[in-house]
Fold this sequence. Notes:
This protein has one domain (8-98): SH3 type barrels (Roll), CATH 2.30.30.240. It is of the alpha+beta class. It starts with 7 loop residues before the first helix and ends in a 9-residue tail after the last strand. Residues 106-112 have low confidence and may be disordered. It has 3 helices and 7 strands; from the N terminus they run αβββααββββ. It has helices at residues 8-11, 48-54, 58-67; strands at 15-17, 23-35, 38-47, 76-80, 84-85, 93-94, 102-103. It comes from Hassallia byssoidea VB512170. This is PRC-barrel domain-containing protein.
Amino acid sequence: MMANEIHLELLLGKTVLDSTGKAIGRIEEVRASKQGEEWIVQEYLIGYAAILERLSAWTVGLGILHLLGAHKIHSGYTIPWDKLDLTDPNKPRLRCSLDELKSLSQQPEDAE
């Protein structure tokens, strides 16, 4: 395995820490694109909303939550690949502030 390669299955479920060491969520999904023969990670999804996306159940899941009375749903973030420090894959850390991340409640594009 090359130095810049990490097995994604080992990252799933890992808790992401912010710059102060506070847990902000677990890696639940990874978005990548194929470039030639390689897959290149574009972003990581963390939090409960990421679980719904991982299960391809975003629209249905949100509908059920609204029926149950949840009006403001925010429980996840999208982390661009270059904003996550994986120097220690067992303890991934943000390279930016939490304010710089996109909320999953503002996504996904295909949920509309």
